[in-house]
Structure formats: C-alpha cells, structure tokens
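Reviewer 2 asked us to include a model.

Predict the structure of this chain.
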Amino acid sequence: MLSTKQSTRPSRAAERLPGRPPWILLLPALVGLAFLVLPLAGLLIRAPWSTIGTRLGEPQVLEALRLSLVTATLATGLCLLLGVPLAWLLARVPFRGARLVRALVTVPLVLPPVVGGVALLLVLGRRGLVGAWLYDTFGISLPFTTAGVVLAEMFVAMPFLVISVEGALRAADLRYEEAAATLGATRWTIFRRVTLPLVAPGIAAGAILCWARALGEFGATITFAGNFPGRTQTMPLAVYLALETDPEAAIVLSLVLLVVSVLVLAALRDRWVNTT
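Predicted model (structure tokens):
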C-alpha cells in the first residue's frame, strides 16, 4: 500500500505544478511535432483520392505490391529461423566476445543501407567471397534476382528481431525452465515447450518490426538486387521510379506504405507505444 502511494506521488505533484509550460520547452516541442506531422499531412492532402482505386489496380503497382509482400514475408521467415537462435545464444550462453558479437549484430541498424548493399555484393556477388564459389560450383547467381531482394531485406531487418527476442529472453523468468529441467526435460524440450511460449510476445513484436523494415527497404535492395519490374522492383523502388515520371502514382504508392506503417504501430501499441 505504501509503495502504491509513493509511486503516485510524482504524477500528482506534476499535476499541481503552477502556471503554464515554459515557452522555452513548449515552442521547440511544437515545432518538432509539426516537422514530423506536416509531411504526412501533406501526403494525405495531395493524394489523388478520385483516381486512387484506378492507380492501385494498375498491373505494375500490383506487381510491385505482390513482390514486396512476398519478399518481406520470406525475409521475415528466414530471420525467424536464424534470428531466434542467435538471440537465444546472446541472451543465455555466456562466452568471450559476446559484446563484440552483439555489436556486430546491431551494425546494420546504423549502417547506411547502400553500404549494406555494397557489402552484400562483395560477399555474394559473382566475384564475391562466397558468391564466386556459389556461381562456379552450382551456377547460382544471387545479385539482381528476387532471392537477392530477400537477402538484402534480411540483412537490414534481422537486427530488429534479434534485439526484441533477446530482450524478451532476458526478461523471462528462468524458474520455469529450471523447474522443467529438474523434471527431466531435455534442453531442446525446454526451449520448445517452455522458453518459446514465454517469449512468444517478444518474438511476435520482433517479427512485425522485422517485416515492416523489410517491406520498406530501399538502399540495400537497389544496390544488391537492382530495380527490375516484376523481379526486383519492390514498393519503395516503384515509388522512387514513379516520382520521376508520375508523381501522383508515387503518392499513391507512398500512401500504401504509410497505411502499413500505421497498422504496424497499431499492432505494437501495447508493447511500444502505450506507456500508461
């Protein structure tokens, strides 16, 4: 009871602060809000609402949307397959160099996507470190293909999943896993039947963020996979191309991505937005 009263005192005290908010804080806050909101409002105001249905039904738009949804979903699935074990390794297995590995995992978050595309070319291109072997041995060429789009999206999106799942693993109560171990469960059984259900919300949140990031990827995709309609031209690339020839089509495509972003925020509001 005492802790509850103590936790409510700061908020009640803040409500009793006299006077209005100081202009030295309020003015830049309003300017920052306007800077973030006005471009989105401009997109909605300038949208060709009368022809939006027709433009969304155009074959090139549907093809770019289909390719974006397919590649983002495939990239997210592969990120789950590789990222969840990686997050478990970082969260549960102490080893030398763990901080370095964690830093390397998060590098794509701050690395310019174009640089990521160049790095992928140097590794997976026909003359790359791994790509040359793939091409000479199996005849597999990944750059400028749909598979290249998936790999580029994986590179930039996987850190979102790993960070989210690692945080969920660190916050999970280890006593459930210890109890399962005392009952004779194997490590794989514990991971599958205890750990995964415990961190399922974190995995879901990370997967949604990963999918949204993959859907909006541009720099690494155009550098590593190119911009070929029907093969590598995703929605962001279609927006870039349409902006030069048909600005209204670019606005319509941008609205689609904006709607997706809003839906992602709505899906994650309890985990990331709601702070009450």
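DSSP finds 15 helices and no strands in the chain. Residues 1-5 have pLDDT under 50 and may be disordered. We have added this to the supplementary material.
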